[in-house]
Amino acid sequence: MNTPVQPVDSVRHTDRMWDATESLRADIDRLEFLEQLGHGTLPLDAFRFYIEQDRLYLAGYTKALSLLASRAPDATTAAFWATSAASAVDEASLHESLLSGSALPPSDVQVEHSPTCLGYTSYLIATAATEPYPVAAAAILPCFWIYADVAVRLAGAAHDVVARDPEHPYARWVSTYDSEEFREIVSAARALVDEAANQATDAQRDAMIDAFVVATRYEAMFWDTALHPTPWPHSRMAVSQ
Ligand SMILES: Cc1ncc(CN)c(N)n1
Fold first, then answer.
1. What molecular function does GO assign, one term (predicted)?
2. Is the distance from the beta carbon of residue 133 to the nearest atom of ligand 1 less than 6 Å?
3. Does residue 7 surpass a pLDDT of 70?
4. pLDDT at 162 over 80
5. Closest ligand 1 atom to Cα of 223
6. 61 alpha carbon – ligand 1 mean position (Å)
7. How confident is the model at residue 60 (pLDDT cuts 50, 70, 90)?
8. What are the backbone angles phi and psi of residue 175, rounded to the nearest 5°?
9. 106 φ/ψ sector (left φ>0, alpha ψ -120 to 50, else beta)
């Protein structure tokens, strides 16, 4: 008797997720924030706003990764996400040093989450806590992959900025994400998401694509809002009056 042969799916599910964000990624490449960052013409106060928001983002992202680790199917996978959570704390030390140094304009405004930052972190935490593991892993992947992808192109554009002053805040930012070490981490994260897709139901695999698209949208909005702020409709002052 012939044993039924399972069809082999030669397309990686992460490739499908990547393809679903093609036009979104083209929009990201054209974002004024990233173009100006690459050319070194981005206003420093816009970069400061971005770094302040990103510091808040990293706190939420660390929680989302820790939740994801707790839901991972095996110990090795849990350790990868938990190590990534610890690395996000290290990543935040770049932000601390940029904000406490003299390269960025000082600010004494009390920083609160922008709507985009709160939306993104809340989405990641809620998804990590409540969605099936494959969907939660897919939602976190753009945080790795989009950054590595953008950094490669930005490193080319920012070549002059880096050559002029490797300690320039934009040069430090670009070289953090344009590194072989980061690309290896991204590739390991991708492999885990593909593995999760192989164990997922068809409905979950569709939901993985949706989650990847939503998180990629937030990545685009996050950069854009630093140059084109979308503040809360009512300020903190107005609320307390
Ligand atoms: C918004 C955002 N997305 C991703 C990363 C890269 N960990 C980040 N620092 N900030």
1. thiaminase activity
2. no
3. no
4. no
5. 1
6. 8
7. very high
8. -70, -20
9. beta
Q: How many CB atoms lie within 10 A of CB 1?
A: 3
* CA–centroid distance, residue 54 to ligand 1 (Å): 7
User: Per the structure block, which two tokens stand in for 217?
Assistant: 């949208």
Fold that domain 13-106+113-227 belongs to in CATH? Heme Oxygenase; Chain A (1.20.910)
Ligand 1 nearest-atom number relative to CA 120: 1
Predicted confidence (pLDDT) at residue 240 exceeds the cutoff of 50: no
> Domain extents for the chain?
13-106+113-227
Q: What is the pLDDT of residues 185-235, one digit of tens each?
A: 999 999 999 999 999 999 999 999 999 999 999 999 999 999 999 999 987
Q: How close is the Cα of 211 to the center of ligand 1, in Å?
A: 16
Ligand 1, atom 10, residue with closest C-alpha: 54
Provide the pLDDT for residue 108.
78
Measured in Å, residue 205 CA sits from the centre of ligand 1 at 24
Q: Report whether pLDDT(71) > 50.
A: yes
Helix, strand, coil share (%) of the chain residues, nearest 5: 75, 0, 25
The two three-digit tokens of residue 199, written as one number: 């164990």
